[in-house]
Specification:
Distance between the termini: 36 Å
Number of strands: 17
Structural class: alpha+beta
Order of helices and strands: EEEEEEEEEEEHHHEEHEEEEHHH
Strand content: 25-35%
Strand order of the largest sheet: 11-17-16-15-14-13-12
Bound molecules: FE2/S2 (inorganic) cluster, fe (ii) ion
CATH superfamily of the largest domain: Naphthalene 1,2-dioxygenase Alpha Subunit, Chain A, domain 1
Radius of gyration: 22 Å
Largest sheet: 7 strands, antiparallel
CATH class of the largest domain: Alpha Beta
Shape: globular
């Protein structure tokens, strides 16, 4: 069964950096209303979007410098969430405050930690440096889906659907038939497939002019609790050194909004024709269309699942489900560990999941020359 809830002690994409500015952005994340904005010095801030007085969303108020004035009766909060003004009051207790969430901004994304502040380790954030690397050309966007986040996480780990759901763009018959290699650890799942001498897919022909048999490689990574990276490589089968060989890296921040809805922060970066605006324009449109097909599938499934609640329809698992099922297991373990921790048994969490997760992420960081541990969580 798809996990309905997600761990709170984890990083999720809250926004693309470009979305967070002077204005007051309201976005529900893991069932909490969250207000996002940027200070005059450029630092992103996230606080509960709910005034402590009468629950008015603070996003409907106004900025006073870096502070937020509630639009209903004027309570004002600083960037730490502490109330600095109550009209008519002569003194204010420091305990009058709203919750502020740890944020970390890097490589064009703003990450949020909805859980316990002292556990917010930026070393746990998966590398995504190519998103802003000038050696890559990137298209990106933010979409919303009325379906639980795990449906999309599993869609992204089982790319056999390309042959059917995206047959007219990024799919070819070989994808669904190719054997997959699945690897996993406490924090991530990787599904790898190689498709030598397979038919060229329409999207690649349009982008590169290749219209002959290709060697195609795909690697789908799931990084718990809800982030995905897809790496794809294609080149003409007849000539391994063909200059039209190309690589794409797609990023998928699937952030739960509620139990049955999610935000989808997507991007795709390419390492070929990076200065060609017509390629960029086509990619942006074509990939948005592909993702909307995925969202359509997830929403249709959510509709079926909802009709069965509180029970659950029986599912048949087939070969391609090995990766998605591992992702479910990881989430179930993370949630169980977190529940155990909230009952006062912290060591179980830190000694099992967190240690492995940190080791895995530090390996990525080392590979890519980044060192987040030395940088600051806001
Ligand atoms: S609801 Fe915010 S000041 Fe009254
Ligand atoms: Fe898809």
């Amino acid at each position: 069964m798809y996990p309905e809830f997600f761990p709170r002690n984890a990083w999720y994409v809250a926004a693309r950096s470009a979305e967070v500015g002077d204005g007051l952005l309201s976005r529900w994340i893991l069932g909490d209303p969250v207000l996002l904005y940027r200070t005059e010095a450029g630092r992103p801030v996230a606080m509960v979007d709910r005034c402590i007085h009468r629950q008015m969303p603070l996003s409907l108020g106004r900025r006073k410098g870096d502070e937020i004035e509630c639009g209903y009766h004027g309570l004002t909060y600083n960037t730490e969430g502490i109330c600095t003004r109550i009209p008519g009051a002569t003194s204010i207790s420091q305990r009058v405050r709203v919750q502020v969430f740890p944020l970390y901004e890097e490589f064009g994304l703003v990450w949020i930690w909805p859980g316990q502040r002292d556990l917010a380790d930026p070393g746990l954030i998966p590398d995504h440096h190519w998103y802003t690397d000038p050696g890559w050309a990137t298209v990106s966007g933010t979409l919303h889906m009325n379906a639980r986040a795990q449906l999309m996480n599993e869609n992204l780990l089982d790319l056999s659907h390309l042959s059917f759901l995206h047959a007219d763009s990024i799919g070819s018959p070989e994808v669904a038939e190719a054997p997959v290699r699945v690897k996993f650890d406490d924090r991530s799942v990787t599904v790898h497939r190689e498709m030598p001498n397979s038919s060229c897919y329409p999207y690649l022909t349009r982008l590169t002019g290749i219209d002959e048999p290709i060697d195609r490689v795909q690697t789908a990574e799931f990084i718990a609790p809800s982030f995905g990276i897809t790496t794809a490589m294609s080149r003409p089968h007849a000539d391994a050194d063909d200059a039209r060989a190309c690589r794409q890296k797609a990023m998928h921040g699937i952030t739960p909004e509620t139990r049955t809805s999610a935000h989808y922060f997507w991007s795709t970066s390419r390492d070929y024709a990076i200065d060609d605006d017509s390629v960029t324009g086509y990619m942006a449109e074509a990939l948005r269309t592909v993702i909307l097909q995925d969202i359509g599938a997830c929403e249709a499934i959510e509709h079926i699942i909802a009709a069965w609640e509180p029970s659950y329809p029986v599912e048949l698992n087939i070969k391609v489900d090995a990766g998605p099922l591992q992702a479910r297991r990881i989430l179930e373990r993370m949630i169980a560990a977190e529940q155990k921790m909230s009952e006062g048994d912290a060591p179980a969490w830190t000694s099992v999941s967190d240690t492995a997760a940190r080791a895995a992420t530090q390996a990525w960081a080392k590979r890519n020359g980044s060192n987040r541990d030395e940088r600051e969580v806001h």
